[in-house]
Amino acid sequence: SAHEAGKLATMAEVALSPPGDAKSPVERSSEEVEYAACEIAAALTLTRRAAESDLNDAMIMTGRLRRAWEQFASGAIGPKKMQEYVRQLGHLESDIIYEVLDQTLEQAPTLTKGQLRARISRLVMEADSDGAASSMAEGLRERRLTTHSNPDFTGMLGIQSAHPIDVYRASRYVDGLAMEIKNRGDERTMD
After folding, report:
1. CB 173: neighbour CB atoms within 10 A?
2. 25 within 8 A of 7, measured Cβ to Cβ
3. CA-to-CA distance for 84 and 176, rounded, in angstroms?
4. 155 - beta bridge partners?
5. How far apart are the first and last CA of the chain?
6. Angle between helix 129-141 and helix 113-127 axes, rounded to 10 deg
């Protein structure tokens, strides 16, 4: 965790360091430097897109989620838990972020990632019920059903950004089909 936190902090500093040469004074910009992701991509042999994503996370972690990042840097929470904070809080208003951090950071080291995810989600919904509703409406506009064929001539079905009740119903339906197959003598597990 400490190594990864250090790398992310360095990425954020690169983003806030304007270009210069050996004789330039040390400066720190208040805004992200335009080509920082390109420099990071070259230095870490990442694609531009991967560097942009990592840099965005680094800026959120070391900025708006600084208190959570400090726990991450100390090793109290791991990278998966830190990513959960970024995913669920990174886009929210500062007052909501602080409220959720106040109620989760102390227990975060002893919670599983799933427990932390559920706790953060509940707290965000309580703190920003209007935002949660508009976020869900926005997500539902992006819902889709996807199907893919696999190289072994099997297929895959996926539901993305659907209402949780619809996902639950679809899951129950598929479980019912699987149970019928199992009852006909299939020896595989239900997984």
Report:
1. 10
2. no
3. 32
4. 149
5. 32
6. 110
Residue in the block written with tokens 């799933």:
114
- Tokens in use for 177? 């089909």
DSSP state of 25: P
Q: How far apart are CA 47 and CA 155, in angstroms?
A: 30
In angstroms, the CA 15 to CA 25 distance is 16
Length of the chain counted residue by residue: 191
Nearest alpha carbon to residue 8 among 61, 83, 84: 61
Cα-based angle 113, 133, 90 (whole degrees, multiple of 5): 45
- The Cα–Cα gap between 12 and 6 comes to 10
Question: Per-residue pLDDT for 69 more than 90?
Answer: yes
Please give the Cα distance from 19 to 17 (Å, whole number): 7
> Can you tell me the distance from the alpha carbon of 178 to that of 156, in angstroms, rounded to the nearest whole number?
15
| Residue type for position 144 | R
pTM over 0.90: no
Number of other residues whose CB lies within 10 A of the CB of residue 123: 19
Asked if pLDDT for residue 132 goes beyond 80, the answer is no
Average pLDDT, the chain: 89
**Contact present, 120 and 84 (Cβ < 8 Å):** yes
